[in-house]
Amino acid sequence: MSADEPTPALPLGRGREFDAIRGLLARWGDRAVGIGDDAAIVRVPRGDALLASVDTAIENRHFRDDWLTPREIGYRAVTAALSDLAAMAAQPLGILVALALPERWSASLPAMADGIADAVTAAGTTILGGNLAAAELLSLTTTVLGSAFAPLRRGGLRPGDAIHVTGSLGGPGAAVAAWNSGHRLHDQHRQRFAHPSARIREARWLADRGANAGIDISDGLAADLEHLAAASAVGLDIDLGLVPLLDGVNGPIAAAASGEEYELVIGTPPGVALDAGEFERTFGIPLTAIGHAVPREAGVVFRRGAERVAKPTGYDHLSR
Amino acid sequence: MSADEPTPALPLGRGREFDAIRGLLARWGDRAVGIGDDAAIVRVPRGDALLASVDTAIENRHFRDDWLTPREIGYRAVTAALSDLAAMAAQPLGILVALALPERWSASLPAMADGIADAVTAAGTTILGGNLAAAELLSLTTTVLGSAFAPLRRGGLRPGDAIHVTGSLGGPGAAVAAWNSGHRLHDQHRQRFAHPSARIREARWLADRGANAGIDISDGLAADLEHLAAASAVGLDIDLGLVPLLDGVNGPIAAAASGEEYELVIGTPPGVALDAGEFERTFGIPLTAIGHAVPREAGVVFRRGAERVAKPTGYDHLSR
User: Fold this and answer.
1) How far apart (Å, rounded) are the C-alpha atoms in residues A94 and A75?
2) Which of A34, A120, A191, B182 has the most C-beta neighbours closer than 10 Å?
3) What is the rounded CA–CA span in Å between residue B118 and residue B28?
4) Are B203 and B214 in contact (CB under 8 A)?
5) CB contact under 8 A, B46 and A42
């Protein structure tokens, strides 16, 4: 069979691992393609670069089973990984999912598989392959593959560029704070934590209209702005008072420290004017200018209106 | 920066995770390329298909810290993943490594990183990206990306095709048996377990000379032959007595059940004659014809000379 033909699902061999994989494939139907060979075969559009990224979600580190349903765990892990393609304005080509599955989670595998399927369907892509291994703690490692003719980079900002953020922030941080403190959890905050969106279409809309740099908010707006500034070798002047907040979020400092938002921060050069009204009518979320890039020597400055504020503390995967 | 230019390593932000990643990048030098954006940017050769696969190695499931050094753990995990590209006769484009790292393993991270570098160097490729997360058990999930104009498939066998195996088998199985029983461990058996080779160059040599189907031996020769037969919808007639054994291996049945060999099984259509002597002179390992494909109705038959033998039991990841 030539690589130009579509790859049919191949019969698998014997054993419990293969039975479990067969069950997943039956559940996924046409959301999974070309499984059964040693590697998936993918066509990259002519002239495009391939984009590849990997992300791991681990039980009790990145989620807790009393916070999320199994379906939400699957959805959220894959959406977080797909968000890295959105950050670069790439079109998804497919994902590979490596599951480390404890025995006590095996009854939840079908629901988790449905969540994985929800995420690829929302992003308009498919499951190309994976791995299933027994383990003591549940983890989902998702590799995302995408393509773009001109990927949006972290290093594209120049002094004078405008900085924009998509969506309304603070929900995931507020949800985690409510869970940890036992305070009342707003439905909308839980929803933003459990059902984030990978801003795939939004990113391509922005790149098509002249965005020259991008990053997704995984570590928190403030921390990810610092990554963007470091990669671009610029400073930033950001007014956190302009950042749209979800109802019930405890102010812009909390919102700028809220991680795993999966909203986008993008830059535009002088002369590019983005139509925030058209963006909001198209995607149902705001697009907001929050500051601009300055020379590197000026550093990254956070303000709230005229008043300078300390850097809101972000999220560091190894420290919690 | 356009995607056609080589991607320089970008400055990273703050935090312990980033410090650890910076340490890895310093250690890897030019064995790691283009790290720092949300996703790696890769060029696929024009006309080639992209091949992608993922594999996970988990502490106490796939290796034990009293069996392997940290450097061997890193080498072996990545080599096992690269072997899936060899199975399809693909040229590696790069790997992504997701590490789940317990605190008690953090001092071993540099040695593990060296082992990962050893594996990509042996395969003539580079590290494109990764993920680092705290965890309770060590695991390494490796995504491999490769390209091929005409990938070797599991489904390519037809009745009458000859079946060949590379290398001498039984070493990994004998090593695991010795560790489990406390019997004397042969150096060569340990070496085959700890330092397997991904048969990347061998596979391309074979595909260039007319091989029409392939699989790598991860579950054991017998089990992987059954996968090949199932995918191709053929039966097989295999003489295990012909399989080359390492010294000290307890016969061909044990060798055919030995998993994680990472040798190749390939098929050739009638009329293709492989020069086993040239193969051995080129790669230093034997290439051996061990049987042929038959109609599906005849099933998969294992013999030892004239005598029919039961299927040697292979390796099932979820059952041990």
Assistant:
1) 15
2) A120
3) 10
4) yes
5) no
Where chain A has pLDDT below 50, the residues are 1-9, 14, 316-320
- Kindly determine whether residue A40 and residue B53, on different chains, have CB atoms separated by under 8 Å: yes
Arithmetic mean of pLDDT over chain A: 91
Tokens, residue B239: 């003489």
d(CA A21, CA A27): 10
Q: Which of A12, A55, A153 sits opposite B37 (nearest CB)?
A: A153
Rg of the Cα atoms in chain A: 20
For domain B16-39+46-148, the CATH architecture is: 2-Layer Sandwich (3.30)
Report d(CA B146, CA B51) in Å as an integer: 5
The token pair at A141 is 């490692």
The Cα–Cα gap between A137 and A122 comes to 27
Cβ of B129 and A20 within 8 Å? no
Looking at CATH, the fold of the domain delimited by A19-35+48-148 is given as: 60s Ribosomal Protein L30; Chain: A; (3.30.1330)
Residue B294 to residue B161: CA distance in whole angstroms: 8
From B38, B49, B144, residue closest to A43, measured CB to CB: B49
Q: What fold characterizes domain B154-312?
A: Phosphoribosyl-aminoimidazole Synthetase; Chain A, domain 2 (3.90.650)
What are the sequence ranges of the domains in chain B?
A: 16-39+46-148, 154-312
Please judge whether A131 and B56 are an interchain contact, meaning their C-beta atoms are less than 8 angstroms apart. Answer: yes
- List chain A residues with CB under 8 Å of B1: 153, 155-156
CB contacts of B11 in chain A (<8 Å) are 230-231, 233
Close Cβ partners of B74 (under 8 Å, ≥ 6 residues apart): B111, B112, B113, B114, B115, B116, B118, B119, B140
Report the C-alpha gap between A180 and A64 in whole angstroms. Answer: 11
The highest-level CATH class for domain A154-307 is alpha beta
Closest chain A C-alpha to B53 CA, distance in angstroms: 5
Answer yes or no: are the C-beta atoms of A144 and A97 closer than 8 Å: no
- How far is residue A220's CA from residue A259's CA, in Å, rounded to a whole number? 4
Which of B40, B142, B206 is CA-nearest to residue A39? B142
Q: Which of A151, A156, A230 sits opposite B41 (nearest CB)?
A: A151
Say yes or no for a CB contact (<8 Å) between A54 and B3: no
pLDDT (tens digit, 0 to 9) for every residue of chain B, 320 residues total?
Answer: 233 333 344 555 446 777 888 889 989 999 998 788 889 999 999 999 999 999 999 998 888 888 999 999 999 999 999 999 999 999 999 999 999 999 999 999 999 999 999 999 999 999 999 999 888 889 999 999 999 999 999 999 999 999 999 999 999 999 999 998 999 999 999 999 999 999 999 999 999 999 999 999 999 999 999 999 999 999 999 999 999 999 999 999 999 999 999 999 999 999 999 999 999 999 999 999 999 999 999 999 999 999 999 988 755 443 33
